[in-house]
From TrEMBL:
PROSITE patterns: PROKAR_LIPOPROTEIN. It comes from the Bacteria. Belongs to the SCO1/2 family. This is SCO family protein. Cu cation binds at residues 85, 89, 174. One of its GO terms (molecular function) is metal ion binding. Keywords: Copper, Disulfide bond, Metal-binding. It comes from Pedobacter cryophilus. The keyword Mitochondrion does not apply. Disulfide bonds join 85-89. The lineage of its organism: Bacteria, Pseudomonadati, Bacteroidota, Sphingobacteriia, Sphingobacteriales. Gene3D superfamilies: Glutaredoxin. The keyword Ribonucleoprotein does not apply.
Length: 217
C-alpha cells in the first residue's frame, strides 16, 4: 500500500498543534484579587495579588501535624466532610479515592479531607475511616482541627459553605466541592465532588497544573 506524503502533512500538523495546546494550557486563578503598583526597572507596573489559603495547622489520621509548610512542594485537592455523613460524603469519598488512586505515588500531589464534625471524628475514627477506604500512603490526609477554625477556613480560604443544621442529614450542611490548590496556595479550580463528569475534569486539570510546573523547570 502506498501513502500520499502530502495528504499526511495536514494530519501531522494537527497533532503538533494539539500537543502544543496541551503544553501551553493554563488553569485560571480563582478567588479575590487585588491590583498593586510596583517599580520594575524604574517603571511603575501593575501586578496582581491573588487570594491564597491562610496558614493552618491540623492533625491527620496518623497524629502528624499538617500545615502549609507540609504542602510547599505539592499541589493538592481539598474537601470538607464528616465520617457519619449519610448523604453526599460517601459519594465524595468514593470519587476522591478514584483521584487518589490515579495519582498515588506522585509526591507532587496531596489530598486534604477536613472533618467538620471534630467532636465525633477523633483521630482513631479518622484512621479507621481512612483504612476502610484503603488509604495507606502519606498522600491523603484526613484532618482534625478546632471546629470554629475549620469552619472559618472553609468560608474564607476555600470559599466553601459549612454550617450546622438540625434539618440536614447528619445535622450538618456543607458543599460537596473539591478544590484544586496550586503550590502557591491559590485556588485553581472548584468541582462538584458528587459529579463524575466534573471529577474527571478535575483529574485532567491536575495534569495540566502539574505540567505547568514542569514547563517552569
Amino acid at each position: 500500500m502506498k501513502y500520499n506524503i502530502k495528504s499526511c502533512i495536514p494530519i501531522f500538523f494537527v497533532f503538533i498543534i494539539s500537543a502544543c495546546n496541551n503544553e501551553t494550557k493554563k488553569l485560571p486563578i480563582l478567588g479575590q484579587r487585588e491590583p498593586i503598583e510596583k517599580i520594575v526597572n524604574g517603571k511603575t507596573v501593575v501586578d496582581t495579588i491573588y487570594q491564597t489559603i491562610p496558614n493552618f495547622s491540623f492533625m491527620n489520621q496518623d497524629s502528624i501535624i499538617i500545615n502549609n509548610d507540609s504542602l510547599s512542594k505539592s499541589i493538592y485537592v481539598a474537601d470538607f466532610f464528616f465520617t457519619s455523613c449519610p448523604s453526599i460524603c460517601p459519594i465524595m469519598s468514593k470519587n476522591m479515592l478514584s483521584i487518589y488512586n490515579k495519582f498515588k505515588g506522585n509526591e507532587e500531589v496531596k489530598f486534604l479531607s477536613h472533618t467538620i464534625d471534630p467532636k465525633h471524628d477523633t483521630i482513631p475514627v479518622l484512621k479507621k475511616y481512612a483504612t476502610k477506604l484503603g488509604v495507606s500512603s502519606k498522600q491523603w490526609h484526613f484532618l482534625l482541627g478546632d471546629k470554629d477554625t475549620v469552619y472559618q477556613l472553609a468560608k474564607t480560604g476555600y470559599m466553601s459553605f459549612t454550617a450546622e443544621d438540625n434539618k440536614a442529614p447528619g445535622g450538618i450542611t456543607h458543599s460537596g466541592y473539591f478544590l484544586l490548590i496550586d503550590k502557591e496556595k491559590r485556588i485553581r479550580g472548584a468541582y462538584d465532588g458528587t459529579d463524575e463528569t466534573q471529577v474527571k475534569q478535575l483529574m485532567e486539570d491536575m495534569d495540566v497544573l502539574l505540567n505547568e510546573y514542569k514547563t517552569k523547570n
